[in-house]
Backbone:
């Protein structure tokens, strides 16, 4: 499928939700990250939150499996991108590098994705899959992987930004979200790097400068990525993840 125009920052919500790194300020792990991710990134961490009333988490896991509609980003795409390799090497060598849980990245190589809709319980996930499959009759849209991102929530997770193809000037993933009855988000990102500790002011400044340097990076274009439903019991998809690919996506 030929690739055309991609959405830009004016259409996405990255600029509005970007974290502002203040001078001489630390970067502390956020409570949402400490609940959903830190228990998996660093089991037994003293700042991990095991559970809170009203949230279906226990040590980072749901009580039952959830489904999400996602676009898959194969690790091989990152392996083959010189731009990505240089960006990651710079992160690893910098002041924030020792705080990255690099082993989690290795464990998640097969499940890298950006969420389009969800998570859902399995019944709602089935309905979402049917609606998404019907929508994909128009063909899977291309995506562009942009530079790294830290948002104004979930402090502890560093993402790669995803810019979907435009069709008739419209973000196609927004069309897909409408088709499956999900909220239009204007935000799609691949959670890639995970902190296992707070950053002191020096490391926080280094992380902020690294993010600024690579804001305009283009890491790769995926002309026809795979879309599917990903079922798992945690938000990092490290516990028995199961894929259900949508038929219009190409074979692996």
Residues:
């Amino acid at each position: 499928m030929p690739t055309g125009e991609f959405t830009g920052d004016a259409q996405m919500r990255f600029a509005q939700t970007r974290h502002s790194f203040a001078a001489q300020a630390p970067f502390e792990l956020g409570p949402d990250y400490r609940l959903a991710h830190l228990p998996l990134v660093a089991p037994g961490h003293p700042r991990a939150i095991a559970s809170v009333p009203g949230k279906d988490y226990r040590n980072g896991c749901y009580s039952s499996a959830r489904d999400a509609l996602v676009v898959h980003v194969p690790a091989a795409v990152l392996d083959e991108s010189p731009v990505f390799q240089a960006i990651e090497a710079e992160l690893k060598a910098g002041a924030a590098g020792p705080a990255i849980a690099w082993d989690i990245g290795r464990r998640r190589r097969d499940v890298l994705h950006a969420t389009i809709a969800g998570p859902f319980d399995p019944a709602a996930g089935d309905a979402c899959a049917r609606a998404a499959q019907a929508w994909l009759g128009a063909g899977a849209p291309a995506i562009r992987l942009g530079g790294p991102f830290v948002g104004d929530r979930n402090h502890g997770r560093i993402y790669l930004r995803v810019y979907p193809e435009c069709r008739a000037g419209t973000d196609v993933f927004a069309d897909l979200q409408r088709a499956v009855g999900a909220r239009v988000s204007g935000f799609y990102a691949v959670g890639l790097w995970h902190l296992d500790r707070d950053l002191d002011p020096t490391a926080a400044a280094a992380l902020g400068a690294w993010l600024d340097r690579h804001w305009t990076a283009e890491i790769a274009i995926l002309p026809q990525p795979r879309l599917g439903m990903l079922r798992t019991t945690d938000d990092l998809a490290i516990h028995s993840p199961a894929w259900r690919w949508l038929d219009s996506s190409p074979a692996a």
About this structure: The first strand starts at residue 61 and ends at 72.
